Amino acid sequence: MGGPRRSVFRTIGMTVGLGPALCLPFVTGCAAPPRHRAAGIGAAQGLDVRLQDYREAARAGVVGTVTGRVYVERAKPDGADTPLADVAVILVPHSEKLLGDLEALKREARHSLAAYHDAAARIQGRLEAYGAAVAAAAGAQVMRAAQVNADGMFRLDGIPAGQWLLYAARALFVPIHGSVPTKQERKLFRLRDPVRGHRAITAWLRELTVAGGEVEVVELTDRNRWFTGMVEERGPNPMPPSRGTRGAQTPRDSPR
């Protein structure tokens, strides 16, 4: 489940059957809007990370493992935790600039309702731009990706020793039911596609130190999430609830 991927820009998370309900950075067909990608590209110029250190550690075999569990904490002391399987994880070289930008975007989400609606896409755009910059400078193999399994577990092996940022995200599609304008009405009145729902985003962000021959353990829960937000979805027809939406715990409607 761990190890290098041919490209982390491929469809992370599509293997769990959620299809487009899981929207993450580096997922083909799930990119941030162009204006957010453009802003992220500008912020990613001039990487502040020594990628050579990661390559040298890998060549020397100084590698470790990152393993983790994602779950909803038990409601009662004698209860059981609920694993979250529909989560994708990416691991990128640590960047103080990237971390600062992401924290700033999270803070800005609290300023207004419009900023809140924009925040998830802006965060995604920034991560996409950083991933593209790293791939261009050192190849996509420097980054790692994993899909959480049915037990809420993930494992990434062969991670070069050094400082890393782990970003994990879960997206649940929440449909809006009701009548929508027909195609003819939209064309006649030049209406935009109606809102068919939104993706409720829960994200985790962790700074990690990987040491050669060691295992770094990560616990991601509903109580220690880094950010919650939403991405509005528009389309001509309402989408049915995606698998995993019913009975799932929906994130709160404000970023933490």
**What is the arithmetic mean of pLDDT?**
76
Radius of gyration, rounded? Answer: 19 Å
Helix and strand pattern: HHEEEHHEEEHEEE
Instruction: Please give the count of helices.
Output: 5
Q: How far is it from the N-terminal to the C-terminal residue, by CA?
A: 30 Å
Give the fraction of residues assigned to helices.
25-40%
The count of DSSP E runs of length 2 or more, i.e. the number of strands, is 9
Please summarize what this structure is.
This protein has 256 residues and is α+β, with helices and mostly antiparallel strands. It is built from five helices and nine strands.
What does this structure look like?
With 256 residues, this protein is an alpha+beta fold. The protein contains 5 helices and 9 strands; from the N terminus they run ααβββααβββαβββ. It has a 5-stranded antiparallel β-sheet with strand order 4-3-6-7-9. Strands 1, 2, 5 and 8 form a 4-stranded mixed β-sheet that branches. α1 crosses α4 (113-138) and α3 runs antiparallel to α4 (113-138). The longest helix has 26 residues, at 113-138. The protein is globular, with a radius of gyration of 19 Å. The chain starts with 33 loop residues before the first helix and ends in a 22-residue tail after the last strand. The model is unreliable at 1-32, 36-44 and 238-255 (pLDDT under 50).
